[in-house]
Design a protein that fits this description.
Blueprint (H helix, E strand, L loop, with lengths): L2 H34 L3 H4 L3 H22 L9 H10 L9 H33 L4 H5 L12 H23 L14 H21 L16
Helix pairs in contact: 1-3, 1-4, 1-7, 3-5, 3-7, 4-5, 4-7, 5-7
Length: 224
């Protein structure tokens, strides 16, 4: 394989790996967001399952956001991808060198704005997501005092990281990778079925015992 062909393969493979993390991290986060807004009545039917599902997806989203900006020397990250682009700036087939450099500079500015959130994500990874830190083992109360992190902040890191990669990939070969999954809320179909069944059972119970107690029973949100 010629040197330019090898450079092309490496650049595209790195882009695919990074946008894959952005894409799957977004799915994990979307599921967590949906479960956070779920009808508490439904959640209380299987509280252990829903609680562990929520936190499992939330932790996965944070870890994938971390991977995009990891500090490990051998890791393929968004900053490393920018360096790959800088080294190949004269080899882009669909952009001039000055435009590639301008895109890199803009990306670095975006990353600088994301840095406070990235630092919080990295601290969380080191404190309890990837390691049993001394803080987690011996002074867990300190973790409750740590800097808070919101879902929109995590989403911004995931999505902006993927967008940076896609912009340079498009300059390279006119392609872009998918960053958003439009069916990340398909689990709501199952929740809806459960809600309808519970509603039916509650109404039947109320009808059967109406002459003894006319007070309505607790029910799902969408159960009139």
């Amino acid at each position: 394989m010629k040197k330019h062909q090898l450079a092309t393969v490496d650049f595209v493979k790195a882009a695919d790996a990074l946008t894959n993390e952005s894409f799957h991290g977004g799915i994990h986060l979307a599921i967590s967001e949906g479960l956070a807004d779920m009808d508490p009545f439904i959640g209380n039917q299987a509280p252990v399952f829903f609680m562990y599902t929520f936190y499992g997806h939330m932790y996965s989203a944070q870890m994938r956001a971390n991977k995009l900006f990891d500090t490990h020397g051998n890791a393929v990250t968004v900053p490393k991808f920018l360096e790959m682009a800088r080294l190949r700036r004269s080899k882009f087939q669909h952009a001039k060198e000055k435009d590639v450099l301008a895109c890199i500079a803009e990306a670095e500015s975006i990353i600088a704005n994301l840095t406070p959130t990235i630092r919080v994500l990295r601290t969380r990874r080191n404190d309890f997501l990837a390691h049993i830190s001394p803080k987690l083992a011996f002074t867990p109360e300190q973790l409750q005092q740590a800097t808070k992190l919101t879902m929109p902040q995590i989403r911004e890191v995931l999505y902006e990281g993927g967008k940076i990669v896609n912009q340079l990939l498009h300059m390279w070969n006119k392609s872009k990778n998918q960053l958003r999954e439009t069916f990340a809320d398909d689990y709501k179909k199952i929740v809806s079925l459960a809600s309808k069944q519970l509603c039916s059972e509650i109404k039947a119970h109320e009808a059967e015992f109406a002459k003894y107690d006319s007070r309505p029973l607790p029910r799902p949100r969408d159960c009139p």
